[in-house]
Here is the input.
Amino acid sequence: MAVLPDGGVLVTEKAGKLKLRKADKSIIDIALPFTVAYGGQGGLGDVIAAPDFAKTGRIYLSWAETGDGDTRGAAVGTGLLKIEGNSARLEGFAVLWRQNPKVTGRGHYSHRLAVSPDRKWLYIASGDRQKMQPAQDPASDLGKIIRLPLVASGGPGGAPQQFSLGHRNILGMQFAPDGRLWEIEHGPAGGDELNLVKQGANYGWPVVSEGRHYGGEFIPHHDTRPDMAAPALYWNPVIAPGGMIFYSGKLWPEWKGQLLIAAMNPAGVVRVKIDGDKASEEARYPMGKRIRAIAEAGDGSLLVLEDKAGGRLLRLTRK
Here is the structure.
């Protein structure tokens, strides 16, 4: 989801619906100018508002799309959101990036998005698509973080570049207040990772991990390969992370600059403190349902999205 300057909230649903919950609580469906490959973990993915949304109305979207034969891949595009009363539409939509190669299966798209603080780059999380080895292949987009240069208008300003490699399935990616990029990704059986992302760094998947393969096979740990970047924090057992934010609001001033992570198993919100290149878990706040996404509202309250059928958009405030 993406919180808009006027208090409205854009929400994506995996089956292919983009919804706008306006500040007056009315809900508008917005038609998409592309077809979503819905199934498994695939479908409509991330939505973010450009930093200058109040002026331009620009948003960025990601989704899974079909390829030749039984193949699929992630895609990213941008358009201008026009809201007029009780209707809204996307104008001037353009595809910015397509995952290459498209492969079989319906998992690990990642396709999370973040615009750099200087507004010059769009960062795209490109999952390993459950193929593992391509995460180490520089000729493949899979298992990478990609960055796309942007021009002043928010459109593409050149060819996409690989920024880092060795990732599995990134489901949260955010810039910290100090301008550094962090991401959180699912490990295999164990070993969910929080990583400080550095240009050119190799985060090791599938060569090293703090988890095991689902069949129980051992994977060497990060300390066996000091040439590969180790996580700032990892979880065994897992938290099954969704999205994350760096909190900056006034309701919980003691949390300022800390990470709040949506967690799906066990369901809740996980709070993490950053200390230089390291991180430590500070607290967990259990919830009744899996939490897929988290955002900060303008008043400092938290918005969380429950996962799966019947999921709700909830606002969390301080007593």
In short: The two ends are 25 Å apart (CA to CA). The mean pLDDT is 97. The first strand starts at residue 2 and ends at 3.
